[in-house]
Amino acid sequence: MTLTLNLPAGIESQLHREAERKGLTAEAYAAQLLEEWLKQERIERNQAAIRLLQSFIDEGDEEEQRETGEFLMRALDEDRLSDRKLFPWNE
How far apart, in whole angstroms, are the C-alpha atoms of residue 32 and residue 38? Predict the structure, then answer.
């Protein structure tokens, strides 16, 4: 994919300096920076989801959670085109 960016002069010169220092072209260094940033964003979103799920576990009533889990497994097993169960141990 080709992407054209119009960078302010200061950022462009800094990008070229850092790329040269790392032995890369400005384009390769910019691509590397974007890849690292996107990876970090993905990690942060995953961590936020993990924290949310953990809060459900920490704050919930164990019996209610067990009943809800069993209900969800039964509902998923009943709403299948196949006769094969997703959760055969939950019978």
Answer: 10
Q: Which residues contact 26 (CB under 8 A, 6 or more apart)?
A: 12, 15, 16, 19
- Note the pTM of the prediction, 2 decimals: 0.54
Residue 35, in any domain of the structure: yes
Q: Which residue has the tokens 């119009």?
A: 6
Q: Please give the residue range of the domain that contains residue 19.
A: 9-59
- Gyration radius of the chain over CA positions: 25
CA distance 35 to 24: 15
35-52: pLDDT as tens digits: 999 999 999 999 998 888
Contact by Cβ (8 Å): 55, 65: no
Residue 1 lies in a domain: no
